[in-house]
Write a structure and sequence with these properties.
By secondary structure, the chain is α+β, with helices and mostly antiparallel strands. The chain is built from 2 helices and 5 strands, in the order αβββαββ. Pfam families: UPF0102.
C-alpha cells in the first residue's frame, strides 16, 4: 500500500469481498479507478513467480468482482485499469523485490 501512496495513488478499498471473489486493493489515480491484484512469494520456486500466478482464470475473477464493485457504487462509467503488484519476500521477511505492472490485464 505504501508503494502506491508514494506514487500518488489514493487507496479507497482493501480486501473487498463479494460472492464472485475478492479485490486486494482498490485505488484511484487521477480520474481512474485502479484494481490491484497483489501476489507474493517467499522465493521463486516450483510454484513460479508471483506474476505467473495471475493466470487467465484469476484475471476473469478479478474483472467480474470489479464489475460488482463498480455497479454497487454506481461507477460503471468510470475509467478503470487492472494492475498487478508482485512481491518477492527475502529470507528475513523483507521485501527483496517489488514489481508494479500497470495495465497488467
Amino acid at each position: 500500500m505504501e508503494h502506491l501512496e508514494r506514487h500518488g495513488y489514493t487507496i479507497i478499498g482493501r480486501n473487498w469481498r463479494c460472492r464472485s471473489g475478492e479485490l486486494d486493493l482498490i485505488a484511484t489515480e487521477g480520474d481512474r479507478i485502479v484494481f490491484v491484484e497483489v501476489r507474493s512469494r517467499r522465493s521463486v520456486n516450483r510454484f513460479g513467480t508471483p506474476l505467473e500466478s495471475v493466470d487467465v482464470r484469476k484475471q476473469l475473477q478479478v474483472r467480474a468482482t470489479a464489475q460488482v464493485f463498480l455497479r454497487a457504487r454506481g461507477l460503471e462509467h468510470c475509467k478503470i485499469r487492472f494492475d498487478v503488484i508482485a512481491v518477492i519476500i527475502g529470507p528475513g521477511g523483507e521485501i527483496a523485490e517489488l514489481k508494479h505492472i500497470e495495465g497488467a490485464f
